[in-house]
Amino acid sequence: MTAVLTGPQRATRRRRTLLVLGVLTLAVVAAYLTVDVTGSWGYALQQRGRRLAAMAVVAVAVAVSTVLFQTVTNNRILTPEIMGFDRLFVLIQTVGVFVLGAATVTTTDPRLRFAVEVVVLIGFGAVLYRSLFGRTERDVYVLVLLGVVLGSTFTSLTLLVSRLIDPNEFLTLQDLLFASFTSVDRQMLALSAVLVALVTLGVWRLLPRLDVVALGRDTAVGLGVEHRRVVDRALLAVAVLVAVATALVGPITFLGLLVANLARQLLGTHRHAWVLPGAALLAVLALAGGQLVLEQLFGFNSSLSVMVNFVGGIVFIALLIREPRQ
Amino acid sequence: MIEIESVSKSYGGVRVLDDVSLTIPTGGITSLIGANGAGKSTLLSVASRLLPADSGRVRVDGMDVATTPGPVLARRLAVLRQENAMSVRLTVRELVAFGRFPHSGGRLTREDSRQVDEALAWFELGPLADRHLDQLSGGQRQRAYVAMVMCQGTDHVLLDEPLNNLDMRHAVQMMRMLRGMADELERTVVLVVHDVNVASCYSDRIVAMREGQLVAEGPTSELMTPELLRKVFDVEVEVHELAGRRIGVPWS
Ligand SMILES: Nc1ncnc2c1ncn2[C@@H]1O[C@H](COP(=O)(O)OP(=O)(O)OP(=O)(O)O)[C@@H](O)[C@H]1O
Ligand SMILES: [Mg+2]
């Protein structure tokens, strides 16, 4: 805080931080794959490898979507999950089963089903952005409140619709909704990995412009960035990534908030070329490390999202309290 | 050259710009004066396509600002807003380097870095270059923002109250620099100023606004009169000739 570092010193420190994160992640990944294997190594590695792959896909999706969302909305507290994106996705899935019947839903090509769900989510994202984050600045507290209201509305609607569903069909729905890292469908995983990779690659070309968009709309326009276009593309990416993450493991509300802010803090920059990899590594660390600790120390299997939300929730409240009131 | 053709803008039924037409010739400094709320910032925002007009249009060197691609326009015209709060934490050098974005696309060439260093030196920001903006005083921060805009190296520069928070020395330096840009590089500078004497001493032309309309425009010497100033600001101002300059003294 007191000592002023020069630009090159900061860059060195950033590189080092990212390197440390990378090494830590590798270590946790290795530990997760090998610790306490009983019986067949081949089987254990295959099982754990798949779980790990699911975590990595979710981690990247959540990290990238949160950072992008915060950039285009110019704030560091709101995330797609806090604004209710993930719970809307669950609602869409539920309504899908209700309207079409479980048989139709499970027999449709998952790619088609997913595409339809994502399109609906994109529509919601566009409406939300236009109405809330348009020209006028809004109080972040109002937005948080709105997110809470939207989120619980979606949850209640989901509950309502699932009550109306035939009990047998409901089982299918539960399989769809309450996926966890331990029960990820292989086909779905492959599809998700490809999608996340494609979206991340697509976003990569936007990064310099996103750095400018983070300065605020007027400054960005003044510097010649086609603000609207960049924001639209970023939101598109956000919708796809949130859908992927939610479809794979269900809502983990505060993971994105946690890793995006931590990455910016640790790396001391808002530049996307640094923050995105940093946040993604942190997310892998949180998920794989958390799962490792839970499985090995406590013998739990699926309460990771509870843990992440607990820690993330505390950070969220801390950020809200620190945020200067406009 | 900046051509503003019958531009109007309303906020919730209230007309803030009322059919404003104005041509700002190439080269030279034009000062925009007027009371608080007269519509100066709004006009500047419309002229620099930060704000869409309800009707009318603005052309910069013949290019319509509403339809010209952003990157093209950003190499011709730079704008400083009145307020410049940012939600990200930047060092002074990082901020100023963003001024090169229209040319570099985010990847600074050696020439870009040279211009950044030059701008930092010009605004005496060298020793502060690696500090974060939130660790600066108001005037230092203002200089950093102006340095970013200057770094854009455009032929047209629109500045909304660039002298905000500046001490006397830095204010004079900034005006001299703008004068130099206008005289030697034939650049077109438009600025909003509240000190009519700055407008009088440094600008070639004055544009006076009141309640969203143009009151008068023309060469500085013709507009620096007690009558006009009274009309624009609703205060009695004596205008004295001092060492060949017209100086307004309001509290008489
Ligand atoms: N976003 C807005 N919504 C509603 N009214 C606005 C908005 N922005 C500006 N106004 C109104 O438009 C009028 C002109 O504002 P503008 O900012 O252009 O004034 P100005 O001449 O720059 O004043 P100042 O010298 O105080 O900077 C004012 O009456 C102001 O209240
Ligand atoms: Mg103003």
Report what the structure shows.
The complex is a heterodimer of chains A (326) and B (252). Chain A is mainly α. Chain A has a domain at 45-252: ABC transporter involved in vitamin B12 uptake, BtuC, CATH 1.10.3470. Chain A has helices at residues 7-34, 41-72, 85-100, 102-107, 110-132, 140-164, 167-177, 186-204, 207-213, 217-222, 227-249, 255-267, 272-298, 304-322. In chain A, α8 packs antiparallel against α11 and α12 packs across α13. The mean pLDDT of chain A is 85. Helix content of chain B is 35%, strand content 29%. Chain B is built from 10 helices and 12 strands. Chain B has helices spanning 40-47, 70-74, 92-98, 101-104, 110-122, 138-151, 168-184, 196-202, 220-223, 226-233, and strands at residues 2-11, 14-24, 28-34, 55-60, 63-64, 77-80, 156-160, 188-192, 205-210, 213-219, 238-242, 245-249. A 6-stranded mixed sheet of chain B has the order 6-7-8-3-9-10, sandwiched between helices. A 4-stranded antiparallel sheet of chain B has the order 2-1-4-5, with helices on one face. In chain B, α3 (92-98) runs parallel beside α6. Chain B is globular and about 50 Å long. Chain B starts with a strand and ends with a strand. Classes of the chains: A mainly alpha (326), B alpha/beta (252). Chains A and B meet through α9 and α10 of A and α2 and α3 of B. The complex binds adenosine-5'-triphosphate and magnesium ion. Chain B: It is found in: Cell membrane. Chain B: One of its GO terms (cellular component) is plasma membrane. Chain B: This is Iron complex transport system ATP-binding protein. Chain B: It holds the Pfam family ABC_tran.
